[in-house]
Design a protein that fits this description.
- The protein has 367 residues and is an alpha/beta fold.
- 35% of the residues lie in helices and 14% in strands.
- It has 12 helices and 13 strands.
Length: 367
């Protein structure tokens, strides 16, 4: 475990090891967006287990960007105190507190937001299939401002790193990809046009948080659909985005038509996306975070050793066993309760509205 438990520094932010909990929906949020004791203890429990950083689940930057009634949100100042409770709990347990800001775009419904979902183009979500409203230029400008406002609230709440969610078929990803963007104005067409929305968001967020604050961008480097993003095209997009102030890239995959690549089931091999992370790291010389069914500390250690990534994201693994990092560091490998990639956590969110785990019955019931 020499490599996994080595330190790492990003823009003055010191990581005690290379293990990160990525943004992962719990939906342990009240329908009005309130954070409860149950939410706080869910994050405290994971932070106490020994990872270097915990990322608060995706927080909607505007009301029409919410994908579930129980999604976290950051679109109003009244939400700052609740979000601060989570940041404080994470930091009290010795981890870095990060937060992901997000807009669902077409991946929501009239039932959830009370209006037609917003999208770059008049193309419905492949899984929801409801009618969408193509964004006007003025609406785009308003959303850029909403991301900036959200970033300011995140800093006020005490978060030490912000991740902009540009992956998994949500709004920013919808603009980046020819699969979902058929606009013929300045926000569509070639890579520069399709990247414009992300560029404007990054510029606005950077302006609000200052030059010294760490920013991450999450990208689906491969979408596995016709006209979808490939690693090669993602590298060209990231060249543009890095110039605007991104410090690290979280390399994921999949979109609203290929969810199996977002949350890989058990028939996919562990660490199945790390080759993409290495290509981006080697091509661009920027730190990267690897994701994708990294459920074993030995695999995680080898990813760092082989230079495929700078940090490893262990999400479902920390739902299954919050103490995985601590147990691995102490050599108690046989005591680790391993995630089996059954995706009960994802199924429970959509069917029952709260996260659950087949191998950890205490998940979501820490308080």
């Amino acid at each position: 475990m020499e490599y996994l438990f080595s330190s790492f520094t990003l823009k003055g932010l010191k990581f005690k090891n290379r293990i990160v909990m990525p943004s992962l929906a719990s939906f342990l949020i009240e329908e009005d967006g309130r954070i409860t004791d149950r939410t706080v203890e869910h994050y405290r429990r994971r932070a106490a287990g020994g990872p270097s950083m915990i990322t608060m689940e995706a927080c909607a930057v505007s009301p029409e960007g919410i994908v579930s009634p129980h999604q976290a949100r950051i679109h109003d100042d009244s939400l700052i105190d609740g979000l601060r409770r989570i940041a404080d709990a994470i930091k009290e347990e010795g981890a870095i507190a990060a937060i992901q800001i997000h807009h669902g775009g077409r991946q929501t419904s009239y039932k959830v937001i009370g209006r037609r979902p917003l999208a770059p183009s008049p193309l419905p979500c492949p899984t929801i299939r409801g009618e969408v409203e193509p964004l006007s230029i003025s609406q785009i400008k308003r959303l850029v401002k909403s991301f900036g406002d959200a970033a300011e609230r995140a800093v006020s709440a005490g978060y030490q790193l912000i991740e902009i969610h540009g992956a998994h078929g949500y709004l920013i990803n919808q603009f980046l990809s020819r699969f979902s963007n058929i606009r013929d104005d300045e926000y569509g067409g070639d890579i520069e046009g399709r990247s414009r929305f992300a560029v404007e968001i990054i510029k606005e967020v950077r302006r609000r948080v200052g030059e010294d604050y760490p920013l991450s961008f999450k990208i689906s480097a491969q979408e596995f659909v016709p006209n979808g993003l490939t690693v090669e095209e993602s590298i060209e997009i990231l060249k543009i985005l890095i110039k605007e102030g991104i410090d690290i890239v979280s390399v994921s995959a999949g979109n609203d038509a290929t969810p199996e690549w977002i949350c890989q089931p058990m028939f996919m091999k562990p660490a199945c996306l790390t080759d993409s992370a290495k290509k981006i790291k080697d091509s661009l010389g920027i730190p990267v975070m690897a994701v994708g069914r990294i459920n074993d500390p030995f695999i995680a250690d080898s990813i760092i050793k082989e230079g495929k990534s700078d940090l490893v994201c262990i999400g479902r693994g920390l739902l299954a066993d919050p103490e995985m990092p601590k147990k691995a560091k102490e050599g108690r490998f046989e005591d680790i309760r391993t995630c089996i990639a059954c995706n009960t956590c994802m199924e429970s969110i959509f069917r029952r509205g709260r996260v659950e785990c087949l191998v950890n019955p205490t998940l979501g019931r820490e308080k």
